[in-house]
């Protein structure tokens, strides 16, 4: 059995020394405390794997020792021993976190077995914690796709920010992946095993947002039939993302500031403060400094939230990541028709690389989802892309030096001709891509005197 550090607490010298003798014979390092006060002093000075404490002691009893162990060294196990066993005290000890409750007199073999089981539980918990840390170290950013310089810099910054456990403001255009950045911060933080929740502050008016975040007491307003915990309470110990923070009403900003300062809240209609322990992240696509200057965002809340700031680059500033992202989304959506679509034609990829992506990564995902749904081949072709991107492909195919300006009709004629060529003059397929019926296509072909 693994050697462990055990603290034995008993105000009866004979009982204390006998138990210590047995444990030392098992190879454990044993520290003895003659009463509860001495036990608290020992806990403050050293770490223990197991604490075995008598229940009834003067001044500081076993329940107080148990509470202090769970406060100072929560991973340590506790076995409570007493000569005055009752059902009530046993239940109380177990509820307070004791591993087991033993009555005097006890059999040495029974105690040996309990000690072994308690230490095995302690060892298992430590092993699980270490494995989680190793897994997290091996795959630090599982969902952050891209190896461009800006993405690599962002990943490095997130690893440093995550462990700080402070408020963070995440800035970026719509569709850049601000929520993904927030989830990554949570994943890499000490709160990773707790809950993560994202709330859109722009989706609620002040009254609804207050009710959602803070909860309410029974009969706080008409229809409040019972107590409702707010989102801040339900995320206790975890991380909450306040998305679209710039759209939060000013009155709500005051309440949020108080939560951040006092680390407590009061439910709607309540009279008691409720402690909260959570990390607050805030995201917006607006310039918060400018919002402060305009009087639309409180300067004191801004400084409280922006302890650290992360700027998520738009897709147009990391174009080298487009192929990797496009392949990722194709793997995600490429099985729509039952036959996997795994490739992207070079011409289609060239078209994507030349596009500005005003909607950023979210727009690229939508484009690849649509392409995977409409394609009829094993790969994504130009004709599977949205019509506006297909028109851009025509301009690309002319060459960068092309200066001629076309009328709207000339542009439409050339576009139809190009689509027909792409689908080997399959008019039904061409009409589908153009978003018109076959009769309308036939009329356009006659109008432009094109080969039918």
Can you give me a brief rundown of this structure?
The protein is of the alpha/beta class.
Give an overview of the whole structure:
The structure is a single chain. The protein has helices at 13-25, 36-45, 62-72, 87-95, 108-138, 149-162, 178-188, 206-214, 231-234, 250-262, 288-293, 299-305, 322-333, 346-354, 360-374, 387-398, 408-422, 427-434, 438-447, and strands at 5-9, 29-33, 50-54, 77-82, 100-103, 168-171, 196-200, 215-216, 228-229, 239-243, 264-265, 274-275, 279-284, 308-311, 343-344, 379-380. With 452 residues, it is an alpha/beta fold. The chain is built from 19 helices and 16 strands. It has three domains: 5-133, Response regulator (Rossmann fold); 149-313, P-loop containing nucleotide triphosphate hydrolases (Rossmann fold), CATH 3.40.50; 318-447, Helicase, Ruva Protein, domain 3 (Orthogonal Bundle), CATH 1.10.8.60. The chain has a five-stranded parallel beta sheet with strand order 2-1-3-4-5, sandwiched between helices.
CATH architecture of the largest domain: 3-Layer(aba) Sandwich
Biggest β-sheet: count, sense, barrel? 5 strands, parallel
What is the overall pLDDT average? 86
- CATH C-level category of the largest domain: Alpha Beta
Low-confidence stretches: 399-403
Tally of alpha and pi helices: 19
Number of strands: 16
- In CATH, the topology of the largest domain is named Rossmann fold
Please list the strands of the largest sheet in the order they lie side by side: 2-1-3-4-5
The CATH superfamily of the largest domain appears as P-loop containing nucleotide triphosphate hydrolases
The best one-word shape is elongated
Query: N- to C-terminal separation?
Result: 87 Å
- Structural class by helix and strand composition: alpha/beta
Estimated helix fraction = 40-55%
The total number of structural domains is 3
Q: What share of residues are in beta strands?
A: 5-15%
Q: Work out the radius of gyration.
A: 33 Å
């Amino acid at each position: 059995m693994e050697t462990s550090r055990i603290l034995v607490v008993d105000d009866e010298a004979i009982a204390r020394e006998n138990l210590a003798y047995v444990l030392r014979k098992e190879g454990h390092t044993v520290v003895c405390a003659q009463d509860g006060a001495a036990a608290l002093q020992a806990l403050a000075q050293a770490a223990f794997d197991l604490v075995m404490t008598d229940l009834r002691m003067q001044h500081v009893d076993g329940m107080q020792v148990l509470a202090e162990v769970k406060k100072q060294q929560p991973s340590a196990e506790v076995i409570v021993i007493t000569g005055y066993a009752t059902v009530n005290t046993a239940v109380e000890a177990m509820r307070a976190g004791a591993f087991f409750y033993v009555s005097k007199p006890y059999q040495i073999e029974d105690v040996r077995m309990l000690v072994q089981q308690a230490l095995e539980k302690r060892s298992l918990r430590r092993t699980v914690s270490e494995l989680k840390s190793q897994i997290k170290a091996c795959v630090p950013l599982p969902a952050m796709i891209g190896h461009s310089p800006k993405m690599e810099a962002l990943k490095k910054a997130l690893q440093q920010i995550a462990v700080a456990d402070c408020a963070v403001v995440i800035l970026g255009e719509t569709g850049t992946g601000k929520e993904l950045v927030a989830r990554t911060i949570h994943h890499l933080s000490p709160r990773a095993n707790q809950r993560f929740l994202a709330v859109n502050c722009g989706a609620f008016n002040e009254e609804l947002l207050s009710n959602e975040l803070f909860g309410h007491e029974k009969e706080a307003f008409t229809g409040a039939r019972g107590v409702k915990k707010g989102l801040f309470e339900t995320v206790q110990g975890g991380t909450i993302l306040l998305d679209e923070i710039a759209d939060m009403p000013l009155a709500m900003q005051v309440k949020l500031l108080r939560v951040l300062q006092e680390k407590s809240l009061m439910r709607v209609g309540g009279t008691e403060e409720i402690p909260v322990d959570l990390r607050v992240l805030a995201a917006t696509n607006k310039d918060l400094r400018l919002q402060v200057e305009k009087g639309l965002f409180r300067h004191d809340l801004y400084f409280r939230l922006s302890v650290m700031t992360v700027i998520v680059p738009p897709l147009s500033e990391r174009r080298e990541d487009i192929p990797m992202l496009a392949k990722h989304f194709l793997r995600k959506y490429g099985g729509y028709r039952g036959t996997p679509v795994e490739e992207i034609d070079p011409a289609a990829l060239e078209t994507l690389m030349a596009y500005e992506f005003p909607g950023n990564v979210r727009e690229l995902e939508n484009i690849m989802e649509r392409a995977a749904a409409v394609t009829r081949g094993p790969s994504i072709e130009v004709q599977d892309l949205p019509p506006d991107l297909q028109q851009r492909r025509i301009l690309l195919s002319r060459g960068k030096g092309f200066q001629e300006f076309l009328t709207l009709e000339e542009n439409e004629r050339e576009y139809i001709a190009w689509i027909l060529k792409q689908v080997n003059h399959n008019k039904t397929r061409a009409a589908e891509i153009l978003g018109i019926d076959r009769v309308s296509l036939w009329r356009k072909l006659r109008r432009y005197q094109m080969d039918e």
